[in-house]
């Protein structure tokens, strides 16, 4: 109980005592301010309140007597000088007398620091052209880092090929399993529903002209050439690219990547290349599965809405859809896989200190992957059109 009573006394009674103490007396007739007691940071609040409670005359000559000040620190000196500055602005003249030498020296030091105080520089907002230029430079700098990252991975790949002992089959198999096999359920549902939607939307128009059977042509070309590879890549970018960034970013925050360097194992050999090559193998395979499920979804919808039997659908499909369409769609998937894996790994390795950076880079990884997938698909469309494929 004695210890708690002491704490209560220090926390409650001492501040109350400080508030009751008198730190100066003001003689209005002589314009004399007599300071006394301890002018330090402990009593700063009480001193400021007492100074604010007295109205001093404007354009007067006020004398400050500091002989009775028993203790003065920088906080007390600042309070006294700040009061002097306010009186000076009102046209009064403040003079200090009988101040002890150490106290006067401290007042001179604090007064010099206040005079040397410079205002914070004003921030001039950038114009729209400057903002564009700044953003462009930031993007070019990130592109430079990305190209350096790709070059480092290429070097690691050539080193592993020349040294097969560094090849880690279990790491590659794990990536294919995690990002290929485990992605099949969501890819199955998505592709099936896309087949249903495409058939429904186009089937309504064909039905008006009595051209129901041509849904096989439209569905096959749309799924095999565009929707199958593109939507699978977008789904994998959201599922796998973000996982790559989050996993590598967390390892970097926990300094696990630094530990690998200490053990003589490069991150490219153990973490980066298995993810890139594993996804390069897995994405074409799950794209083939997505094509199959998209066609099945369209077949189910054609049977229910357009009256096209499964036999008629499958009988016409190989006649009107060449194998070239399947190969054209699958030919895009390695590029999509490289984009997803490289961007995801790059953003993961760029994570700085803090969870905010991890979240921002994960979001950036998904956005950039989807953006470049669509850009690459547009470029492929132009190239294949020029090649008459």
Please, could you describe this protein's structure?
The protein has 389 residues and is an alpha/beta fold. The protein folds into 2 domains: 114 residues, STAS domain (Transcription Regulator spoIIAA, 2-Layer Sandwich), CATH 3.30.750; 256 residues, no CATH class. The protein is 74% helix and 7% strand. It has a 4-stranded mixed beta sheet with strand order 1-2-3-4. Helix 8 runs antiparallel to helix 10 and helix 8 packs parallel to helix 12. The N terminus is likely disordered.
Write the layout of secondary structure elements.
Layout: H1 2-20, E1 24-27, E2 32-39, H2 44-52, E3 61-72, H3 74-89, E4 93-97, H4 101-115, H5 128-162, H6 169-179, H7 184-208, H8 215-253, H9 256-262, H10 267-306, H11 310-320, H12 323-349, H13 355-386
- The helix fraction, in percent, is over 70%
Multimeric state of these chains?
Answer: single chain
Distance between the termini: 91 Å
**What portion of the residues fall into strands of 2 or more residues?**
5-15%
Shape: elongated
Number of strands: 4
Main sheet: strands, sense, barrel: 4 strands, mixed
Give the averaged pLDDT, no decimals. Answer: 84
Number of helices: 13
CA radius of gyration is: 38 Å
SSE arrangement, N to C: HEEHEHEHHHHHHHHHH
Largest beta sheet: what is the strand line-up? 1-2-3-4
Count of folded domains: 2
Question: Structural class of the helix and strand makeup?
Answer: alpha/beta
Unreliably modeled segments: 1-19
């Amino acid at each position: 109980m004695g210890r708690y009573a002491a704490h209560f006394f220090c926390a409650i009674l001492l501040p109350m005592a400080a508030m009751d103490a008198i730190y100066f007396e003001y003689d209005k007739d002589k314009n004399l301010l007599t300071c006394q007691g301890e002018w330090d940071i402990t009593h700063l609040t009480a001193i400021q309140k007492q100074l604010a409670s007295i109205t001093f005359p404007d354009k007067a000559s006020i004398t400050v007597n500091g002989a009775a000040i028993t203790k003065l620190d920088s906080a007390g000196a600042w309070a006294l000088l700040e009061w002097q500055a306010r009186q000076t602005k009102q046209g009064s003249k403040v003079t200090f007398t009988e101040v002890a030498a150490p106290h006067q020296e401290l007042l001179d030091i604090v007064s010099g620091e206040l005079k040397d105080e410079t205002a914070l520089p004003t921030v001039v907002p950038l114009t729209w052209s400057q903002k564009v230029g700044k953003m462009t430079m930031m993007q070019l700098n990130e592109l430079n880092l990305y190209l350096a990252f790709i070059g480092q991975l290429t070097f690691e790949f050539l080193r592993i090929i020349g040294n097969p002992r560094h090849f880690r089959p279990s790491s590659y198999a794990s990536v294919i399993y995690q990002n290929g096999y485990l992605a099949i359920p969501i890819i199955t549902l998505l592709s099936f529903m896309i087949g249903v939607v495409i058939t429904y939307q186009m089937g309504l128009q064909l039905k008006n002209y009595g051209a129901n059977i041509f849904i096989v042509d439209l569905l096959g070309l749309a799924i095999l050439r565009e929707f199958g590879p593109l939507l699978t890549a977008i789904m994998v970018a959201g599922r796998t690219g973000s996982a790559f960034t989050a996993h590598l970013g967390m390892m970097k925050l926990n300094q696990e990547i630094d530990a690998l360097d200490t053990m003589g194992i490069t991150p490219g050999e153990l973490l980066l290349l298995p993810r890139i090559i594993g996804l390069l193998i897995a994405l074409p395979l799950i794209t083939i599965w997505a094509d199959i499920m998209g066609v099945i979804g369209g077949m189910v919808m054609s049977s229910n809405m357009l009256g096209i039997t499964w036999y008629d659908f499958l009988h016409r499909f190989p006649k009107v859809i060449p194998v070239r369409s399947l190969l054209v769609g699958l030919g895009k998937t390695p590029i999509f896989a490289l984009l997803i894996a490289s961007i995801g790994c790059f953003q993961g390795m760029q994570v700085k200190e803090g969870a905010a950076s991890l979240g921002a880079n994960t979001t950036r990884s998904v956005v950039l992957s989807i953006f470049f997938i669509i850009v690459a698909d547009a470029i492929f469309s132009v190239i294949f059109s020029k090649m008459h494929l």
